[in-house]
Amino acid sequence: MRQVRNPDFLATRGRDSPLSMTGYGQFCSMARAHEVLGGRWTLLIVRELLCGSRRFNDIRRGIPRISKTMLSERLQDLVHIGAVARIEGEHGPEYDLTQSGRELMPLVSALGTWGQRWLPRRPETEDLDLDPLLVDMQRRVKADALPRDPLVVRFEVQGHRSTRFMLLRLEEVSLCTQNPGYPEPVVVSTPLAALVAWWRGDVSFGEARKLGLIVKGTPALVRAFPTWFDRYLFAPVEPASRAGG
């Protein structure tokens, strides 16, 4: 595969690019880094790349509110500063973090930890999308905990007309808008807020059930359902109020 990267980080780009806007005018490396990384969506794109997304549409599934135009521009900016390499893959363009981009992992981790510890967690009042949650669940499935036989989990989330399906196989986990042809022995019926509260670590699975999270189906599989996932990466981070901060 061929990598395409512009090594001239100082070249002028389009009028709407943060790289061509008036800067902070500071020598400070923190200010200079914020000029190129502090734009809306940029670090979320880095997050998706750190989590393994490589193709344009896969990145956008994790950030559904970003427009295609904005995602394209932000990816170009990251390529331009050398944090991302654009690769001509077998099925079209792919994006991969360079050494420069991978060094952003501690920054992304620190922001996630800070947000988990210090920001209020009230999912019932938050403006939340379903798809980023399911994408995160998909990529944190524990293959060694799954049943041997393939199955589909049906997600029926209150307030969302479209049902989602998660195919769980030892060799593949995928999200679908239609059942790809496997049994559906587990159905998750829930308010989005209850599913978020459990996944994010706000409450235990039992407490989420009291909030309306219902898992129906084959009893053994229903009991096993929460063990099929490594919960959200920052779920172990306790809120400051609970930790006595």
Note the main attributes of this structure.
245 residues; alpha+beta; Arc Repressor Mutant, subunit A; Nonspecific Lipid-transfer Protein, Chain A; 2 domains; 5-stranded mixed sheet; 3-stranded antiparallel sheet; 8 strands; 36% helix
Quick recap:
About 35% of the residues lie in helices and about 15% in strands. By secondary structure, the protein is α+β, with helices and mostly antiparallel strands.
What's the main sheet like? 5 strands, mixed
Query: What is the CATH homologous superfamily assignment of the largest domain?
Result: Winged helix-like DNA-binding domain superfamily/Winged helix DNA-binding domain
Secondary-structure element string? EHHHHEEHHHEEEEHHEH
Give the neighbour order of strands across the main sheet. Answer: 6-5-4-7-8
User: What is the share of helical residues?
Assistant: 25-40%
Uncertain ranges: 4-16
CATH top level of the largest domain is Mainly Alpha
Rounded mean pLDDT score: 91
Characterization of the model:
The protein has 10 helices and 8 strands. By secondary structure, the protein is of the alpha+beta class. 36% of the residues lie in helices and 17% in strands. Strand 2 and strand 3 form a beta hairpin. Mean pLDDT is 91; it is low at 4-16. The chain has a 5-stranded mixed β-sheet with strand order 6-5-4-7-8. It has a 3-stranded antiparallel β-sheet with strand order 1-2-3.
